[in-house]
Structures are given as C-alpha cells and as structure tokens.
Structure prediction request, 329 residues.
Amino acid sequence: MFHPEEVIFAPTGRCNLSCAHCRVRRGPEELSVAEALAFLDTCADGGIERVGFSGGEPFLRLDFLVALSKAAVARGLFFDRLMTNGDWWEDERELNAGLAAVFDAGFDGVIGLSYDAYHGQAPARVKSFIEAASAVWGRKDAVEILSVRSPDDGSYLRDLEAVSASLGGHVEILAGEPSRIVDATFLSRSETDPDDGSGLNIQVQRFPRSRTALEGDEVGAWGDASWFVDDFCAGPGNVFYVHPDGQVAPCCGFANENPGLMLGTVRDSYDALIENAAANTQVRACFDEGLGSVRKRLEAGGRRFPGKTRDICFFCDHLCSTPARKRLA
Prediction:
C-alpha cells in the first residue's frame, strides 16, 4: 500500500550538466518557496517526517534549499538526501558559500553526489567538492556517491581511484548487495577508523542504467535472461516527489515523469493526494498487486513483451507509456 514516508522537492529542472541518461524535463517551471512551504505543512500534518531535495541541480536554487531547510527544522522534521552533481560552482568561494548556507540553515542529512561516467565531472573538482563538504559538515562521511553504470565503467573506476587517492584513501570493492545496488564501493582510510566521521568513509552506490520505454528496444533493455523480482516499490517508492511545476508523483525513480503516475499538485492536501493514489490504477499495480503479478496476469491474458527485463523501473515506465486501453488490461 502506498504510504509516503518522505517528501522530496525538486525546485528546478535546470542543470549545468547535460547527461545522456537524465530523464528530467528541462522546462521553465520553478517551484516557489511559498507553495513548497504550504505543502510541507500538509505533509507534516499527514505524518511525513523526512525531507529530501533533488532536481535538476538544486544548488541552482540556493534560496529554496535554505528556506525549506529552515522550515523543516522549525517543524521538527528529519532530513534524508540532498542530491547534487557537485559541479555547479564556478570557484571555491561559491562552493564553500553555498554549502555553508545550507548547513547553517540546519540541513544535517546526507549529501548525495551524482558522480559517474555520464556526468563527466573532473576528478579534481569532485575532490574539491568532497573536501569542502567534509569541512563544512565537520565529518568525512558527509557525502555518499550514487553512480549509474555505463559501458565505460573502467574509466570511471580509474577516476574514482584517483579521487580516493587524492583524499588519502583507497577504493574497496565489496560483494554485491541483494537489491538494485549492483555492488558497494567505499573510500576508506582504514578498517579501524572510528564511526564518528573522523575517518574517510564514503559509500558509493552503483546502479544499472534504467532506460526509457522508447529507447528500450534499441539498447537491449529486454535482453535479460530472467524477470525482475517484485519489491512493491520499496526502493524508489513511498515518497511524495514534487516536480518543479508543482506536480506530485509517488516515486523518485526515473518513471516518475509519466503523467500516469501524477497524483495531483502541491496545491492539493495530503489527504486528497492519498485518495488520488488509492484511485490510480498504476499506483495500485506498483504498491498493492505488484508489477511482477501484473506482468504474469497480462501474459496470461495474451500480452507478449519484447523480452525480459530485470529493471522494474523500466517495466513500470513501459506500462506507463503504453496506451491506456492496453496498460493493465
């Protein structure tokens, strides 16, 4: 059952980078602070306790980050991730000022750094960002890296090794996790480092690239040997994701741009959005029936898919992009 635990604000679709795997719509819409504050109140009244930020590049709306962080603190809410490409600054003065403004506003969550081969950040700038964030937050584990796998993984891993070496650490590849995380990597100075932020310990979560339904056939997204394992959207789901135009989706996965997943807007109340979610057939398929069960039901009814996929978000996007008369029937 869909039950949002967090509200994630994406105040802008603008970004200083242009990544091939990005699904964010780059329109002129910008989420206003006033509407976001009003929505934060209805979320808090509904029982949501966590706040996160995404984009676009959210640091291009520093005013928004500061205002909403202060408001969250005043309301006794907790923070999750602030996602950033870490490359939005022109010089280190701007970098340090931006990070300090967010920290001084009360944000004490994790800085999620999107860093992979698609983003193309220079290792030296990644190092500068991590050092600046560590200094402002006063701990060396303030940043975690989230990366999307690419065919050029070797080059990315060499750059990651260069970043870790420049910070005085090294890369440790750990065994695969039983989730959408393919493997976990840590920049760690020593296994004996204390768990108080004084040691370099940066988790790097690596994900497969989710493809759109339109490009899926071209890049072999249907070429897996087995189907995905149903998780009832335990990963990217159970959030209110607020887009720059004010629309609210029940998911922070890449499929959340689909009109079929929109629950309403920030001008709707928490209760109204929950009612809309309960009436949304795609949301019920994801959170109640399970997309694995949906797939089996559709196949039993004669539906044929181009192949198999282990990417549940891709399958969700495929269903959302299918004409309504064929989507779930």
Notes: The chain has two domains: 6-207, 237-327. Confidence is low (pLDDT under 50) at residues 177-183.
